[in-house]
UniProtKB/TrEMBL annotation:
GO biological process: actin filament depolymerization; barbed-end actin filament capping; positive regulation of neuron projection development; regulation of lamellipodium assembly
Assigned keywords, A-Z: Actin-binding, Cytoplasm, Cytoskeleton, Repeat
Family recorded in the similarity comment: Belongs to the actin-binding proteins ADF family. Twinfilin subfamily.
Source species: Culex pipiens
Domain ADF-H: residue ranges: 1-56
Location(s), subcellular: Cytoplasm, Cytoskeleton
Name of the featured protein: Twinfilin
Pfam families with a match to the protein in the record: Cofilin_ADF (PF00241)
InterPro entries, per database record: ADF-H, ADF-H/Gelsolin-like_dom_sf, Twinfilin
Any single Gene Ontology cellular-component annotation: actin filament
Signal peptide range: none
MF terms (GO), sorted A to Z: actin filament binding; actin monomer binding
Length: 128
């Protein structure tokens, strides 16, 4: 699970930096290992109680209009043909954001299952 917090009062530039750093982290860590994401704008949302509140609030799907239900059925029945020999997919996203040596070591340790939780901080002044 990846829980990210971006202060609501952050400037657009800071929010973009947070987003690109998060994209780099997911790319380095491997997004296939992330089963769930929680994007928070208040610090209390990053706690266990905040996560449980999120699960309760978003446990049921949003109601759909009849038109949205029809479109969903059409999408299910459509044949997916966007992957072929000539198809190009983006493999790297965001900007290159340096990760400290200790963060890289911690990510490698987590891959080896030494940890089940890591917390990172973005230095907005240094942009890393």
């Amino acid at each position: 699970m990846l829980i990210s917090w971006v202060p609501e009062a952050a400037t657009v530039r800071q929010k973009m930096l947070y987003a690109s750093t998060k994209a780099t982290l997911k790319l380095e860590f491997g997004s296939g290992h992330i089963k769930e994401e929680l994007n928070c704008t208040a610090k209390d949302e990053t706690t266990l109680q905040g996560y449980q509140r999120h699960k309760v609030e978003f446990s049921s799907p949003a109601p759909l209009t009849s038109r949205e239900e029809e479109l969903a059925e059409i999408r299910k029945s459509e044949v997916k043909t966007d992957f072929g020999i000539d198809t190009k997919q983006q493999t790297l996203g965001g900007i290159n954001c340096p990760i400290s040596e200790s963060a890289a070591v911690a990510l490698n340790d987590m891959r080896r299952r030494a940890y089940n939780y890591l917390q990172f901080r973005i230095d907005l002044e240094e942009e890393k």
